[in-house]
């Protein structure tokens, strides 16, 4: 059963103006209104003349929301803060768990991609591997994507899987290593043209470019993991305050 936190009504004597929240969070007053409109913070109360007024709790939530945006991205941060503001703590924590799990899975994919460009390992896989090739469905399942994704990668020229005697695609361990590499680089916003160039380098025994690309992605991923951890820490602090 989900743990629900009763959110108390905002204090009608709230005295913080939009400019006060803006200064506290180092953003513009219009950004404060945007965060409110998107549900990152509860709605402001209105004075008799219609001016917005906020509480210290709303400022605290705004600061956490901005940290979450950095650590989780806009969409997930919004889901988390909307859940917190609605009292659905379990719903908020489910998003944090998924974010950290996604980062962990990408780190594992990155490790496999790094293995795939090791010259000795690639040579061993291509010449001495007797593992039965996988169908397109099995290969897609191994990567956690759909067969349509692999067909798309093929259509744009980044992969060219061999065909069995019956004309069906099949994927050897070497091919799977390249698929891991494509997946990691796509997650790092590499274009298909850039990925094709890197894979071409592997085929000519020149893995330096691919190694540099993966090293860059490793650095990015470490930074993202630290930012996600910091965001989660801030979120837990906010939840503890609201539950006290």
From TrEMBL:
Pfam families linked: MerR_1
Keywords, alphabetical: DNA-binding
Ribosomal protein in keyword set: no
GO MF terms, alphabetically ordered: DNA binding; DNA-binding transcription factor activity
PANTHER family hit by this protein: MERR FAMILY REGULATORY PROTEIN (PTHR30204:SF97), REDOX-CYCLING DRUG-SENSING TRANSCRIPTIONAL ACTIVATOR SOXR (PTHR30204)
Organism from which the protein derives: Microlunatus soli
Cross-referenced Gene3D superfamilies: 1.10.1660.10
Protein name in UniProt: DNA-binding transcriptional regulator, MerR family
The keyword Zinc-finger is annotated on this UniProt entry: no
Domain HTH merR-type, chain residue ranges per copy: 21-69, 133-201
Record InterPro entries: DNA-bd_dom_put_sf, MerR-type_HTH_dom, MerR_fam
SUPFAM superfamilies in alphabetical order: Putative DNA-binding domain (SSF46955)
């Amino acid at each position: 059963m989900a743990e629900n936190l009763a959110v108390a009504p905002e204090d009608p004597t709230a005295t913080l103006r939009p400019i006060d929240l803006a200064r506290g969070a180092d953003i513009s007053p219009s950004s404060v209104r945007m965060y409110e409109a998107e549900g990152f913070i509860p709605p402001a109360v209105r004075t008799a003349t219609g001016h917005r007024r906020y509480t210290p709790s709303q400022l605290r939530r705004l600061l956490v929301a901005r940290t979450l945006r950095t650590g989780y991205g806009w969409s997930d941060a919004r889901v988390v803060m909307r859940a917190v503001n609605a009292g659905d703590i379990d719903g908020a924590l489910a998003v944090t768990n998924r974010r950290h799990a996604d980062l962990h899975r990408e780190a594992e994919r990155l490790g496999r991609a790094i293995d795939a460009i090791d010259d000795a390992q690639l040579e061993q896989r291509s010449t001495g591997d007797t593992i039965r090739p996988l169908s397109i469905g099995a290969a897609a399942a191994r990567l956690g994507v759909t067969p349509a994704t692999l067909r798309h990668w093929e259509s744009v020229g980044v992969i060219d899987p061999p065909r069995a005697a019956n004309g069906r695609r099949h994927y050897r361990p070497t091919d799977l290593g390249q698929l891991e590499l494509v997946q990691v680089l796509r997650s790092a916003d590499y274009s298909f043209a850039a990925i094709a160039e890197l894979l071409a380098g592997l085929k000519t025994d020149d893995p330096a470019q691919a190694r540099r690309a993966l090293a860059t992605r490793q650095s990015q991923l470490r930074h993202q993991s630290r930012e996600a951890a910091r965001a989660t820490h801030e979120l837990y602090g906010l939840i503890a305050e609201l539950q006290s």
